[in-house]
Amino acid sequence: MKRSALIMLAATVVLLGGCAQAILPSGPGAGGGPGLTALTITPSGAAIAGVTKQQFSAKTGDGSTPSVNWSVNGITGGNATLGIFDASGMYTAPEFPPTANTITITAVETSDARKLGNASITLDNPVPQLTSITPAGVAQGLFTITLTGLHFAPTATVYMGTAALTTTYVSSTQLMAAGTATPAQAGTQIITVHNPDPGASVSAGVNLVVAGNVVVVVAPKTATLRTPRRRSVRWMRQAMAPRLATRTLAKGGGVVTAADPIADSTADSASCAAAGSAPGCRRPGRGSPSTRRRIAGAQRSHGRWSAARF
Fold first, then answer.
1. Selecting from 1.10.760.10, 2.102.30.10, 2.20.28.10, 2.60.40.10, what CATH number does the domain 40-124 have?
2. Burial class for 268, CB neighbours closer than 10 Å (0-12, 13-18, 19+)
3. Is the pLDDT reported for residue 6 higher than 50?
């Protein structure tokens, strides 16, 4: 009895041994299990800025491109925080990177889940886009401006030229900035937004006009006046020192030119010496001042020179 049982057990072992198969590896598989061909993901080790799209592909060791499923940090298809894959392998980075900005992308062959490949990717801040500032011009001294655009990082900084302004983050599309405009900055200044690391970048610039000191321009520089006889002509500027220059014209007139301000006494002396008949002068041979005579002159009013009587 025991002998027949041993014979039957031996027959069963032989039968089972004849049905077993050994699956021999075709080569080591780094991405898959032992004996499987790993997938290679391209590109690998890339740095991708926020909201940027990147096409990925997966190939086997023989160069074929099987159908695969994509995942980010183990999440099939990714998500809004880590970025999203579509079925073709197109990846769209999130606007701003997660705190741990190095992620793992995985491709798994759809026909054999044991065949897969991984790639490590770094996510950066986006490039800021500045579209406008309000107001577009400021006076010298303290000022505040509002900036509008896209992709402003929470720790973005606004610059006027090379000077950082005090920046308040409102949203990824709006910032507030405050600073002090100096006389040396009068004119056009360039405003930019700087996003910090990872992937520090700078927006294109928008002009901000800083008002300068008021400059009065006398125009025309020269003028021709006709007088019936010898006269002193004085250039005058409204709300300024009344006498900028005194010139004496011979009978028939001539050309006079605006000059630097001179003192009244000097003007009168020069006028008396030349003509002997300017206001405040004594006529030769008379014991009392001559009667003041209003003579032809020129007076500037709202940017123009006009004839005046004084």
1. 2.60.40.10
2. middle
3. no
